[in-house]
Amino acid sequence: MEVRLPRTADADRLAALNRELGYAVEPQEMRLRIERLTEMREHYIAVAEVEGDVVGWVHAEQRFSMESGAKAELVGLVVGAGRRRNGIGRSLVRAAEEWAADRGLNSIVVRSNVVRPESHDFYRRIGYARAKTQHVYVKPLQPGTDA
Questions:
Q1: What are the sequence ranges of the domains in the chain?
Q2: Which of 78, 84, 86, 143 is the most exposed place for a label (fewest CB within 10 A)?
Q3: Does pTM top 0.70 for this prediction?
Q4: Backbone dihedral angles phi then psi of residue 62, each to the nearest 5 degrees
């Protein structure tokens, strides 16, 4: 298995993996996301490739806030259903952790949806501890209006 930076040629496979997370995206949109994110210094994205097949991806971001200063956050991780429990997710997370450490960040956070209990077990197994439970609220914004 190889962990490497994504290429736009990976877009079809990354879009399929995104659907496994429950987020439908067209391959063309995924190509645009790959292009944009690879240009952004505060973001790290990598894919796991096994025998020429992209089987997972990770996305981390450097964050800076009033409350906690600088830290990294894993904002996305997926390994294809048929490839889980083979160390691929662990390798992807390790790559993101190394990226964060190389940037001088001393902590990394991940949020995991309550409907994914298998991911909670995964993160605990690799050394993450639950720090809090929260609700997430979303409000769509209308461009050009007072929100």
A1: 2-125
A2: 143
A3: yes
A4: -85, 130
Q: Residue ranges of the alpha helices (H) in the chain?
A: 11-21, 27-39, 88-102, 117-125
- Cα distances from 126 to residues 43, 67, 121, 134, in angstroms, run 22, 26, 9, 22
How many Cα atoms occupy the beta-carbon half-sphere of 103 within 13 Å? 22
- Report the pLDDT value the prediction gives residue 132, as an integer from 0 to 100: 86
> Among residues 101, 102, 123, 99, which one has the least CA distance to residue 111?
123
Structurally, at CATH architecture level, domain 2-125 sits in 3-Layer(aba) Sandwich (3.40)
Closest CA to 131 of 56, 67, 61: 67
Mean pLDDT to the nearest integer, 104-125: 88
